[in-house]
Amino acid sequence: MQIHLIPVFREWIPEWLARTLIFGILMTSLFSFAAYSSPAAVMGYYGVEPADVQYGMVITYGSAVTFLALDFRIVKYFTSRKYLLTGLILNSVSSLACFYSKSWILFLLSGFVQGIACALLCSIVLQMTFPRLHSTRARIIGYTLLYAGIQISVPFYAIYSSIMLQFFDFNWLFYGQNVVLMAMAVIVWVTMNAKARFHKKFPLFQVDWAGYFFYTLFCLTLGYILVYGRQSGWFDSSVITVLSIFAVVLLTIFIAREMSVKRPLINLRIFRTGNCIIGLLLLVVFYIFKGTTGLTYAYVETILKTDPLHTIPMWISVIMGTVLSMFVTSRLLLSGTPLVRLILSGFVIMALYYFYMLEFVSVTGDSTDFIFPLFIYGVATGVLFVPIVTFTASAAPPSIAFNASLIGIFSRFVGFCISIAINNQVQLLTKSSAREQIRESVEATNSRLPLVLEDIRSSYLNAGNDVYNAQEASQIHFNSLIKEQILIRATRDYYYIMLAGLLCILLILFLLPKIRKVVLNLRKGNIPY
């Protein structure tokens, strides 16, 4: 038998177990992002700022995005088991380094390596999944399971982090990750054929290593600009200005190179298709509105004083909403429901999430009030993700449809970075506005202010404090109440802005008749990312 026709799994592995192992490998590949589930823990352990943690996520994500484009060639050279074990070992070594070290630079370098390992493992999962699916029905179910795994990985690993950090220090997250990686490596070694490969062996000549270098450098530079731009003052900063010029130069070189080489990293002719561009923009928009939940969890932990363990029901509600909606969405796709109708429905459901958040954000709320809104959020992401991806893939010309997947994951990365920039900028503006409104209210018009301060001071005196300590403590307590009110008002203003933006997107989609012509067309040879 030819090597590329040898089954990936050994003959004694039943199909149901093979599919379970594939899904397990997918979830393991996304373990690298578990460390970012608790930004406060990362900041406390490494002594860094919030923007540094955000850029750490950008490095890992960007590394995965860019290596996926290169992986398309590399995966054809190695046997599947060797390639998969390489990814698991890379991930394990970098996790072990983070477990024993408190160096932030090492953490970032390990994050870059883990991004490559994540891309490598995800690529193997895709190669094992979609060649097994022959009908359109099976491919839709494959898309649904793949993207459901990606979507639920964030809340799933947030639950893992919440439990681990309740009992262990931050670095033990990497220990748990290493245990899972080693267990998966043993399972892969036992269950997969050593000589099996997905394609005939293809030599690594004319691989666009230079294109990969420019692509990676551009993504990391773009991420840095969008993460640190607000705190640096954007173009008032010489660093941001120079990096912006550098990013434009990198992008120009990359485009010129990809248009001239025989085997480009990404075929940029994909941008000649109008509906495909609309699909890519929808992915960017989706990730911008999807990236607002961090503010919700910050509000719950900061204002409502909810410990991480009690946020687990909220994470579970997101998982349940995502899984349920993706199941229903796949059934609707199979029944022939137009893609545009599903996309519009998803954005409407997302708007309902913002309406609910505006209703429940207050100083007297309870964490249980947010279980249902976050369930709605999970439903919205589940309804939107698969239709937008299939819309983009279906709009692409058959000869270059694979490149729609590569540009699609880049669009998700850009949307993720833009969401960070918008969150940082809008929160700064809304907090400044709220701080000014509260200052005017407290200092100029509120005649009850002296009574409130006296009540707070009296409570500390009654608790046994002397006059001096009671006065100091009451002022600190009052300042904390002011900060809470500023955060609450800023949060509400932020959700108002995002809701207004979402309604504008819905209006634009209603006014674009061209997108209604795109029909579901998932080609057998097309492997999504």
UniProtKB/TrEMBL annotation:
The keyword Transmembrane applies. Keywords: Membrane, Transmembrane, Transmembrane helix, Transport. GO terms for molecular function: transmembrane transporter activity. It is found in: Membrane. The chain crosses the membrane at residues 21-47, 53-71, 83-100, 106-128, 140-160, 172-192, 204-227, 239-256, 277-300, 312-334, 339-358, 370-393, 400-422, 494-513. It holds the Pfam family MFS_1. SUPFAM superfamilies: MFS general substrate transporter. GO terms for cellular component: membrane. It is a multi-pass membrane protein. PANTHER family: MAJOR FACILITATOR SUPERFAMILY MULTIDRUG TRANSPORTER MFSC (PTHR42718:SF9). This is MFS transporter. The lineage of its organism: Bacteria, Pseudomonadati, Bacteroidota, Flavobacteriia, Flavobacteriales.
